[in-house]
From TrEMBL:
GO BP term, pick one: DNA restriction-modification system
Signal peptide (residue range): none
Source organism (scientific name): Methylomonas denitrificans
Record carries keyword RNA-binding: no
SUPFAM superfamilies on file: DNA methylase specificity domain (SSF116734)
Protein name: Type I restriction modification DNA specificity domain-containing protein
Length: 404
């Protein structure tokens, strides 16, 4: 929960006032798209297409560039390096600091912070990050939510003297660097796992001691279907692409399951369940739980010649997902489905079970390592969020170097 400062709770040496009193606010514009001379002129221009690049500190590159002619013949403005930009439309509340002079579209607000005696760019960036939940609450609209410009005219901020702002920004920057380092490590581990899957699950790389030829099977030869219903007393589960098989109440989206669960299917530990209409998108998982799932899922029981964990990895590979797509039935992508009878017809080539288990062990170890990093990353971000709340509201006061 963000604790916003007001005038009465502002520390005595902090200034509480309109943000426009600290930084020069500007909006943006889109030059005429029908005039080629206004585009591709080397001036970076932040548009909705760049929303994914925000919330990561600096913004370095933009999807499109405009020209000096585009600036001259529109309301677009070239903002200096260090300007802080905030999205007021799609991706409401996302912000960044310009790494070089840039212009913005009308979907963004830009604050120039080049008056170093009033506000520091990185202090403002972190304050905007802290205020993001509030910006999201202020956004209105049925399809694309937006914040109107009048809101920003009345936006107030509490800020300490510039030296304290710089110190706060420096402290938070050290956390950002730690987060960035851990994100890069996690991404590297994920890339390594992807390469391992490509090598191990295709036989391009094999472990010592395994030399036998791989064999080709119809999926009906290595799986049977579990089609058991009437277990209403079991826990309702959901099958997800990223989190596997989990209790339905842990899924963030609204519960749309029927009150009548008599036709829901039983799934057991060791089974692989998949979304019948989204198997080709990788929505399948090995279950560690017993429960019931919607009839929209198909439940597969591994036979003795297949290791379930190995199969769960195999089903996520592009080659096999493409097979799932090819064998799915339906006139459009909205109706494509892979019933078990069509699933059964697919052929795959796999090693003996002992080699499957070795491959599954190595890939599972990679998953555990990635999950550990992701938990560390989540904890680090939560810690930073708590620190921001304390530092940016004056609850914890920083000491300047000359005070030590």
């Amino acid at each position: 929960m963000v604790r916003n400062l007001n005038e009465s709770s502002t520390p005595s040496d902090w200034r509480y006032d309109y943000l426009d009193k600290f930084a020069k606010r500007g909006s943006g514009h889109t030059p005429d798209k029908e005039i080629p001379e206004y585009w591709n002129g080397g001036i970076k221009w932040i548009s909705l297409a760049d929303s994914s690049k925000l919330d990561n500190g600096y913004i370095y590159e933009t999807d499109k560039e405009i020209s000096e002619e585009g600036i001259k013949n529109s309301s677009a403005v070239l903002h200096p390096q260090g300007t802080v930009v905030l999205s007021r439309d799609a991706g409401v509340g996302k912000s960044a600091v310009m790494s070089s002079p840039m212009a913005v579209s009308q979907h963004f607000i830009a604050w120039r912070c080049d008056n170093s005696e009033k506000i520091n760019s990185w202090f403002l960036y972190n304050w905007l990050q802290l205020m993001k939940p509030e910006f999201e609450r202020q956004a209105v609209g049925s399809t694309i939510k937006t914040i109107g410009l009048p809101y920003f005219k009345k936006l107030k901020i509490a800020a300490p003297p510039i030296a304290q702002q710089q110190k706060i920004a420096q402290i938070l920057s050290s956390w950002d660097k730690a987060i960035e380092k851990l994100e890069a490590l996690t991404a590297a581990k994920q890339k390594r796992k992807k390469a391992l899957m490509q090598q191990l699950l295709t036989g391009k790389k094999r472990f010592a001691g395994f030399e036998g030829e791989w064999k080709t099977y119809h999926l009906s030869e290595i799986f049977s279907e579990r089609n058991e219903s009437g277990f209403n007393d079991l826990t309702l589960l959901s099958i997800t692409r990223e989190k596997g098989v989990i209790p339905r109440d842990e899924v963030e989206r609204k519960d749309t399951s029927n009150d009548d669960k008599s036709k829901y299917l039983r799934i057991c530990p060791g089974d692989i369940g998949y979304n019948t209409m989204r198997m080709w998108q990788g929505v399948s998982a090995l279950s560690d739980l017993e429960g019931i799932v919607s009839p929209a899922y198909t439940i597969c029981v591994p036979k003795n010649n297949i290791d379930a964990k190995y199969a769960s990895f195999l089903f996520k590979t592009p080659v096999v997902m493409n097979l799932f797509l090819r064998y799915s039935q339906g006139l459009t992508s909205d109706t494509w489905n892979l019933k078990f009878r069509h699933f059964s017809e697919i052929k795959i080539t796999i090693p003996e079970k002992a080699e499957q288990q070795k491959i599954a062990f190595v890939l599972s170890a990679a998953d555990i390592e990635i999950e550990t990093h992701q938990k560390q990353l989540s904890a680090l971000k939560e810690q930073k969020k708590g620190l921001m709340q304390q530092l940016l509201t004056g609850k914890i006061r920083v000491k300047l170097d000359k005070e030590n």
